[in-house]
Amino acid sequence: VQFMSSIDFTHGYWQIPLANESQKYTGFKFNGRSYCFCVLPFGLSSSVSTFTRCLSQIFGHDYEQFLKIYIDDILILSETFEKHLEHLEL
């Protein structure tokens, strides 16, 4: 691999809504008040696999040869600069 770009989905987890029946399992207290997440929180035991599965569904198998998903990052790998530009446009 000669060229590599990375994309960090900083708040990517928060784009995935939690099912209403799952929200109660994310509860916590802060300053005497109770809260729960409505979206996928970072740090939940299933968050990484859920987010990775969502990204895999979005990009599909066509991109596996040059696109790697790791936690909340995507790596785009290419052998030539021209190919890298093509991959980035996809």
TrEMBL record:
| UniProt-listed GO biological process terms | DNA biosynthetic process
In what residue span(s) does the Reverse transcriptase domain sit?
1-90
InterPro entries named in the record: DNA/RNA_pol_sf, Rev_trsase/Diguanyl_cyclase, RT_dom, Viral_Replic_Matur_Polypro
What is this protein identified as? Reverse transcriptase domain-containing protein
Q: Which organism is it from?
A: Photinus pyralis
